[in-house]
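Protein in question quoted in full.
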Amino acid sequence: MKAILEFNLDDADDRIAHLRCVKSLEMALAMWEYNNAVRRAFKEGAENNGAIFDAWEDVLSKYNIVLDEMVI
């Protein structure tokens, strides 16, 4: 069984859809890592929500995820 995805990269909507597909592994890894970081922060009694948000931005950066590129 095969599945073939086709995108017209000249079309803005297709270009974004293509980027979502090719970044799916990085997105899954980033969400998994962030989930674990938040869990650790709460277990350690983190009181600074800014630190949790900074951790999220660090994870996205690590996986080269730019949400603004994939969501309009």
Observations:
- The mean pLDDT is 86.
- Residues 24-70 form one domain.
- The CA atoms of residues 25 and 63 lie 9 Å apart.
